[in-house]
């Protein structure tokens, strides 16, 4: 994935001000955006997904412009064809696992024919090992099953890239290890470009083919210092 980000945005709320001014280029299948809490990681990933609009700058992925303040280009999130998985997975509590995944498909970015739905959902239930809980609701799932459901819902639209906001933060230590391994294998099997944000150095070790280190809303030099 070729990722070009050069954006700035000022956030103001309750008398506080946060200046995001992030510029980096990445050319790798696995990009990690690393930094302490409050560094601007989520804001940067959301800007790539189109969930927030920068004040200025440019974002392009694989040569396709997503945002360009000079030409007033700002593709809607669904036009970007990237999947964004929230830290808390944002599953619909009133829908089963199968319905959550199907929601992604039917309301999704590609609006595919309903006749494809059932087979596609079954395929992703199998790929993510959650067929046995397909009719259960999110509150009836383990943390790992919740994450697999969120991944299936994201992947069913066959996005061109997967953007993950702290994918393992909601999991306890041993489950984190397992799910990290699963995501590692899934990414290799699907060959889907992946960008994830984390403040966990183990994520950096596994997924950080390329690492962007953020500090106070900017790209910081010297990842070695950060990891020391
Ligand atoms: N809508 C907003 N208005 C004002 N400030 C905001 C807004 N959203 C985020 N911020 C501030 O911007 C800073 C960066 O937020 P961001 O969510 O990107 O951090 P992060 O690096 O992802 O942190 P964490 O690891 O804790 O999730 C924080 O100080 C946050 O309080």
UniProtKB/TrEMBL annotation:
Pfam families assigned: ABC_tran
Domain ABC transporter per the UniProt entry, residue ranges: 2-227
Protein name: ABC transporter ATP-binding protein
Keyword set includes DNA damage: no
UniProt KW keywords: ATP-binding, Cell membrane, Membrane, Nucleotide-binding, Transport
Matching InterPro entries: AAA+_ATPase, ABC_SmlMolc_Importer, ABC_transporter-like_ATP-bd, P-loop_NTPase
SUPFAM superfamilies: P-loop containing nucleoside triphosphate hydrolases
Signal peptide: none
GO MF, any single term: ATP binding
Lineage, top ranks: Bacteria, Pseudomonadati, Pseudomonadota, Betaproteobacteria, Neisseriales
